[in-house]
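Journal club prep — side note

Before the paper discussion, L.F. wants everyone to see what a predicted structure for a comparable chain looks like in token form. Sequence:
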Amino acid sequence: MTTDGDGNSKQYKTTAVVPASITSIQNANWHGRIPIQLSIAPTSLSSPNKPRTIHRMVSRMTYLHIGLFDEIMYLYEYAPSSIMAGTRLGKQAVVVREEPPDSPPKQEQQDHESDINDKKRIKEDIERHQDEEITFQSNQTESSAPYNDNNKDQRSEQSTYLTSTNSSFPECWFEDEESGIPLRWQLFVGVLYDLMKGRLVVNNPGSPCNKFRNLPWKLRIHFTSYPTDQLLPLDIAVPPQQRVSENDESINTAKNNNASQQAQINTLIGRIYRNSLKQALFLQYGSSKVAMSITKNNHEKIWDAVLQTNYEAYHQVNTELQVGVMAQPINNKLSLTDDLTSTDEKYNKDLPQLVPVRVLLNDKPAIQKPTLPQKKAISECLKQRPTEILQDDAVMFVSPYTTLGDVLVSCLPDLFTIDDATDCHTHYSIQGVQPSLSTTIVDLWRSLCHPDHFLYVTVATQ
């Protein structure tokens, strides 16, 4: 009820705000895309003609090496020919080995004749657009000298553990162009972007807020000098059925090679994803029973859904896995007249035993923080009758549930305080948004977790 300028009363009809369902928020996140501008690093460029800069919209829910696979293979054609032919560069290369010998073969400088043969073979391969790479064991002490191709006995010995890999995925890594920081390939694209954006916000506190000023996200791809001290090895082992000889003409097509290469990177990242999902399921249920009971068909369905960023297909399987995914958001307002004997059962039936949370601070390893969904039983909160009660039609506000602020104070007490205050030198984010620190961690987890069921909270500081 209000009055106009003449003193006449007017009554306006108010519309109640209906909270979005958990599945609708999940669906919106899965359809979120990040515009990426991709170029090849100058140190990885051998062609006199620089390839065009690539612009792509990439899902927040995928991984860089999967979402940008076609772009990787396109830019790989401009990499140094020594990489494509299998000459080792940098300190580490990808592992492809079967039953390694007791000691690595003696390495000597190639003579002039074999060098000519190598260059001829390289030229032929480039013309057919079939890149070749010989990969080595990552934990082996390595040298930059090439193998001697003249010694036939040595070549025979090498063939037992080195393979011609015209179908192997190239060892490559991405960096944020602005900061020069290598990007961890095992993290989702959305998590990597939120970390980068957070650094930009805290390092430019005086600049006006513009959520689009750092878009498109500029990335560089490298095919040399893999930073083993900062990134996990891109440990791709080619399955025996995919290993081929140079004389096998049945696979000498770019289409077959690409299919094999894509299968290799999908297998590697898929293994990381499934292990993470199993960890999250164990925390939710308090046992490995659910994780171990997932059928092979459902494993394939949920991974294919991640590869295709298909939320509908993912949701079909996820409803049987994620605890409370079909529940309504938690209401923190509890009636004073609630039956205290049934309140806990009413509110706890859809809660996980532990909420899978990972907190990432700058470029440090993730802090895995299994979190209790409640700080104490709801019935205990109602019995305590707190001194500060917000009443509205006999409803009192209590906070029995663990909040985002509780998690951050527990993980990073030097950066966050219990009064929900943060300074301009700290920026936190979940799925690109900055929810209130008083939001319950269960609601955030159900709505904003990634496909592996972990809630990723990114924190950036100066």
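L.F.'s comment for the group: The mean pLDDT is 74. Keep this in mind when we get to the figures.
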